[in-house]
Amino acid sequence: MARRFDHLADVEALVAVVDHGSLTAAAVALSTTPSVISRAVARLETRLGNQLLRRTTRRTSLTEAGRLYVEQARAAFHLIDDAERAVQGEAGTLSGQVRLSVPTTYGHYRLPWLLRDFVRQHPQVRLEVNIANRNVDLVAEGYDLAIRLGALPDSGLVGRTLEDATLSVVASPDYLAAHGTPQTLDDLATHACLPFVLPSSGRVAPWLFRVDGGDVDWVPCSRIEVSDDVLGVVSLAQAGVGICQTYDFIIDACTRRGADLVRVLPELSGRTRPFSLIYAPHRRLSAASRALIDALVSATTTRA
User: Fold this and answer.
1) What DSSP designation does 190 have?
2) Helix H or strand E encompassing 90
3) Do 52 and 42 touch, CB atoms closer than 8 A?
4) In the chain, what is the greatest distance between 2 CA atoms, to the nearest angstrom?
5) How far are the Cα atoms of 105, 252, 286 from residue 110, in angstroms, in the given order?
6) Backbone torsion region of residue 213, taken as left when φ is above 0, otherwise alpha when ψ lies between -120 and 50, otherwise beta
7) pLDDT tens, residue by residue, 100-157
8) What is the rounded CA–CA span in Å between residue 259 and residue 239?
9) pLDDT tens digits along 23-67
10) Phi-psi region at 130: left, alpha or beta (left = phi > 0; alpha = psi -120 to 50)
11) What is the CA radius of gyration of the chain?
């Protein structure tokens, strides 16, 4: 008996081109080459006797026949995904791979404790964790999920808030012994503050304070500036070079590792920055991805 659906890999290639916007991006997502993707789409067009994609040097778009076909193909793949989830749920064993991108702050000082229980409970799930000081392109680079700092951009991505991370100002005991402890916000101007230069704007990130019930954004000025990796300000503070502002979860982790950091001006703390978990809305998440989302949201809610 001839196989009726031996062309499904070609269909998946076509859907990947549409989802990712180009032959090159689809090739990255499917771990192959643009020429392989191009041949797969051509075979599918020959099989159907219809042009599915319009290709120019600048862009790739669907024909009307291609639009109708991709809609039905997506629906079919969704049914297959649902069937796999149902079977995996009945079997009680979760498997598959999840690609996750996180910033260095979260990747080094928060995520390890959040993932600990998940990896123990689901030993068949393979996690690929990318820790980087940049916002990856989820679609073009083939990531399932990403954790990002700050308000979610209006980019069409779906977001789940993980937590509003509290900020504090800290210094090492050696620094405070040598230079004294600031007692007011104005006192900071006389200290060696450690500012971070935002890569997106080239400007120094303000320190966030709460003064007499109001929010104050204070821009530190120093002869030392850190760029690219914000964890550099923490390392410098630990070495006694100066004072920095960072997240409480980093301070707590440093304390667990034996690094002594002292909170400065605690009465001015309380401001937060949000961390969110995001994914592309048109991408059908695997059972493993959904389980990881639930685990991370539950863990941050529990630990808050």
Assistant:
1) G
2) helix 64-91
3) no
4) 84
5) 7, 10, 24
6) left
7) 999 999 999 999 989 999 999 999 999 999 998 888 877 778 888 999 987 666 566 7
8) 10
9) 888 888 787 898 999 999 999 999 999 999 988 767 788 899 999
10) beta
11) 25
- Helices marked H in 200-241 — which ranges? 231-238
Q: Strands, E, within the chain: which ranges? A: 53-55, 60-62, 96-102, 125-131, 145-149, 158-171, 196-197, 207-211, 214-218, 226-227, 244-247, 262-264, 272-279
Q: How far apart are CA 249 and CA 300, in angstroms?
A: 11
List the Cα angle 189/194/199 in 5-degree steps: 120
**φ, ψ for residue 165 (rounded to 5)?**
-85, 125
Give bridge partners of residue 169 from the DSSP assignment: 245, 264
Residue 243 DSSP label: B
Lowest-confidence region among 125-139, 162-176, 201-215: 125-139
83-86: which pairs have CB atoms within 8 A and are 24 or more residues apart?
Answer: 84/287, 85/287
* HSE-up of residue 5 (Cα within 13 Å, Cβ side): 6
Q: Which amino acid is at 191?
A: H
Distances (CA, A) of 179 to 240, 243, 292, 294: 10, 11, 46, 46
Indicate left, alpha or beta for 47 from its phi (over 0: left) and psi (-120 to 50: alpha).
alpha
